[in-house]
Write a structure and sequence with these properties.
Number of strands: 0
Number of helices: 11
Helix content: over 70%
Distance between the termini: 68 Å
Order of helices and strands: HHHHHHHHHHH
Radius of gyration: 29 Å
Shape: elongated
Structural class: mainly alpha
Largest sheet: none
């Protein structure tokens, strides 16, 4: 496998380039922290202030490095970034990390500082040039100081009670924006499509006919439920998030709920298809009950009883209609 000739090994850099790389690293990390602060400001104000402080620390380190660079090599700073050095790990895109949640942001910040320290430390161990070893060692120590400073800032900005409050708020948003519309869709798809699918199966005794009915019902219900969820609430007052996201989650889960017990009717043998479909229905209803218990704090026995009763009634109605 070939390598990009423009990408160099760390030991190929001279002292001027190493210092320029350190400046670029501090600038990039500072901008990432500033992005985190901006994205988090509305929903996680305490964490946003933490990253404001960390960005300010990075800016101070960058200025100190620039002063050292200018004093030794002049005003022109060579352009070099982590992407030009083989093995140097760049920070993850802030937006992508934000979408993963607040814990992912905190973990990525620690990873950034740890990776930077490890990179400089290992490079120093490989270097045989005394001035470069000293410079790399100083940079490794600076990154470790960043971790210590970040911990100090976090303790000041996010004492246990505030962090718990932010974590609770994040969980509520996840439930409102993802779990609730997904659960509504899964319940509708898993339960409401039982009657037409099993009615078609027992009316015709042809699994393929039941499959077509189930496929049409699942897709139609998914489209309908998706639009209904998206149009019901713009999320501004309720805090339930963007209508497009909720509608997409609800629609996809509705379709998935119906498709689950529709696929067994691809089996040619009628009674085998019925048995597999019934088994899938039991799994779907059990999953609905678990979600209610896990995220809605419903008593487990009550959740199971209500879901199983509702599913059994719809299933019985479908079988009775199809057998009539």
């Amino acid at each position: 496998m070939g390598y990009d000739a423009a990408v160099r090994r760390f030991h190929e850099l001279d002292e001027r380039e190493i210092l320029a790389l350190a400046i670029a690293n501090e600038e990039e990390d500072g901008r990432v922290y500033a992005d985190y602060a901006e994205y988090l400001r509305e929903n996680y104000p305490d964490s946003a202030r933490l990253f404001d402080d960390m960005a300010a620390e990075e800016e101070e380190h960058r200025r100190a490095l620039i002063d050292l660079y200018v004093g030794r090599f002049g005003r022109h700073i060579a352009y070099i970034t982590r992407r030009d050095v083989r093995g140097a790990q760049s920070p993850a895109a802030p937006r992508a990390t934000i979408l993963k949640g607040i814990d992912a942001v905190r973990a990525e910040a620690k990873r950034m500082e740890t990776n930077a320290s490890r990179f400089y430390r290992e490079a120093a161990d490989r270097s045989t040039d005394a001035p470069i070893r000293k410079l790399l060692g100083d940079l490794a120590s600076a990154e470790l100081d960043h971790l210590r400073i970040a911990g100090t800032i976090e303790q000041r900005r996010l004492p246990g009670q505030r962090r718990d409050r932010e974590d609770d708020a994040a969980r509520r948003r996840f439930v409102l924006q993802i779990v609730q519309p997904g659960l509504v869709g899964l319940m509708d798809g898993s339960v409401s499509t039982l009657a037409p699918v099993f009615a078609a199966a027992f009316a015709t005794h042809h699994p393929w006919d039941a499959f077509l009915v189930g496929l049409a019902a699942s897709i139609g219900a998914g489209i309908s439920m998706g639009f209904a969820e998206a149009l019901a609430d713009d999320g501004k007052l309720s805090g339930r998030g963007t209508p497009i996201l909720r509608g997409a989650v609800c629609g996809m889960m509705t379709t998935a709920g119906g498709i689950g017990h529709t696929l067994p009717f691809l089996i040619a043998d009628f009674w085998t298809a019925i048995g597999v479909a019934a088994f899938v229905v039991a799994i779907e209803l059990g999953l609905i009950a678990w979600i209610q218990y896990r995220y809605m704090e419903a008593p487990p026995l009550s959740a199971v009883a209500k879901v199983m009763l509702g599913g059994a009634l719809v299933l019985a109605a479908g079988i009775a209609i199809g057998s009539g």
